[in-house]
Structures are given as structure tokens and as C-alpha cells.
Write a structure and sequence with these properties.
InterPro entries: Fumarylacetoacetase-like_C, Fumarylacetoacetase_C_sf
Distance between the termini: 40 Å
Strand order of the largest sheet: 4-3-15-8-9-12
Structural class: alpha+beta
Radius of gyration: 17 Å
Helix content: 10-25%
Number of strands: 18
Organism: Roseibium sediminicola
Number of helices: 5
Pfam families: FAA_hydrolase
Keywords: Hydrolase, Metal-binding
GO molecular function: hydrolase activity
Shape: globular
Strand content: 25-35%
Length: 227
């Protein structure tokens, strides 16, 4: 059908060693999914039910640069494993969840922490803190057929060569199959959905000129410069 205004370009992420890209449908994020990070954010690390928030598809940015956003003085880095789905539906069983995974990538959930704190205090949504332009730098997608299931492995982030965050994927409170299952109870998942699975402790601020290197064992390193 013809459109009354120009249709937006689809968001397509590069796939490692492939000429084809991964088209993005939706972006879901899991909050406080590492115990140590829950503690540093002032919450109980017990295994409470997972909670989710969303970013926009065009927040995903493979360019390698992160423009410092306006209306904030406290932007934090959060390194995360991104899970890309090749299919989906409602009420997926955890035992079958990995059948829907296409692949994985290293990602950053950049957060305007001061705006998030204000929103929390007022009981308001987090979109202004989480879903701003280019707030999710992301590396190339690696098919699960190439890297296997990433249920364990080092996850880390350095800023200007100094380690800020470090953990292991096996420290996820809610594991990847459980995340997919729980999320599918709330939403009808589908091909092209991206899930950011949470960040380990050590989140902190960035400033213009910083160089971030985010790494997950088995995936290409993501290097991002704050501009």
C-alpha cells in the first residue's frame, strides 16, 4: 500500500561474516538480572520475578560511536548479551525456548541515570532514560549455529583500557530460556525480536572522548567511542 509520508527505513543489523543482515522487529530489556548489579542499584538480589522494559528498534546502533545525549549529566554504560530471535509465539516453554534463537551479539544499554532516578522517584516510566537515540550500541550478530549456546562465559567492559564491569553469563539470575519463556507470557514474540539480558555490576558514567570496549566470550568485541 502506498504511504502518505515516506516509510521509515527498516533496522537491519550486520551478521558476522555474512552479506545478509538481521532485521529488527522489537527490542526488550531485562532489568536487574545479575545479583551484584541488583545490590549496587539498591535492590534485593533474591530471585524475584523478572521485569522488562523496551527500547526502540532504531536505538540499536552498530556504528561504533555514541553521541552523548542532551538533558543529562550522568550517562552510564551497561554491557549486555543480546539474544536475537528467528521465530516466536506466545507462551513458549523454557525447554523449547532455544529453538527460537537465531544468534547473539554484544550490546550496551546506555542509560541517562539521572533521568532514570527522577522517573523512579516519581513513579514514572523510564523511556526518556533508556529509549533515546542510539542508546543501544551493538556488535555484529553471530549465529548460534556458529558460536553455540552462550549460557556461560566472561562478560566485561573497559573504559579507556580500565576494567569497569566483569562477570560471567552463568551469573544471570534468569537464564536465557527462562527469559524467553517469561517474556512470551507477556508478549507474542516473533522473528526479529532482540532481547538484552541484563548487566553485571560495575556500571558507571562515561564522558565525551571515552573509548568503551565491551566483550563476551565467543563473540566479536564491540568498541564504541563517546562523541
Amino acid at each position: 500500500m502506498p504511504t502518505v509520508i515516506p516509510a521509515p527505513y527498516p533496522v537491519i543489523l550486520p551478521v558476522n561474516e555474512s552479506r545478509n543482515g538481521f532485521p529488527v522487529r522489537r527490542v526488550y530489556c531485562v532489568g536487574r538480572n545479575y545479583a551484584a548489579h541488583a545490590v549496587e542499584m539498591g535492590h534485593d538480589p533474591d530471585r524475584e520475578a523478572p521485569f522488562f522494559f523496551q527500547k526502540n528498534p532504531d536505538n540499536l546502533d552498530p556504528s561504533g560511536t555514541f553521541p552523548y545525549p542532551p538533558l543529562t549529566h550522568d550517562v552510564h554504560h551497561e554491557v549486555e548479551l543480546a539474544v536475537m530471535l528467528k521465530s516466536g509465539k506466545s507462551n513458549i516453554k523454557a525447554s523449547n525456548a532455544l529453538e527460537h534463537v537465531y544468534g547473539y551479539a554484544v550490546a550496551l544499554d546506555m542509560t541517562r541515570r539521572d533521568l532514570q532516578a527522577e522517573a523512579k522517584k516519581a513513579g514514572r516510566p523510564w523511556e526518556a532514560a533508556k529509549a533515546f537515540e542510539r542508546s543501544a550500541p551493538v556488535g555484529p550478530v553471530v549465529p548460534a549455529a556458529d558460536c553455540g549456546f552462550l549460557g556461560a562465559g566472561r562478560i566485561a567492559l573497559t573504559v579507556n583500557g580500565e576494567t569497569r564491569q566483569e562477570g560471567d553469563l552463568n551469573q544471570l539470575i534468569w537464564k536465557i530460556p527462562e527469559i524467553i519463556s517469561k517474556l512470551s507470557e507477556l508478549f507474542q514474540l516473533g522473528a526479529g525480536d532482540v532481547i538484552l539480558t541484563g548487566t553485571p555490576s560495575g556500571v558507571g558514567p562515561v564522558v565525551r572522548g571515552d573509548v568503551l570496549e565491551a566483550s563476551i566470550e565467543g563473540l566479536p568485541t564491540l568498541t564504541v567511542k563517546v562523541t
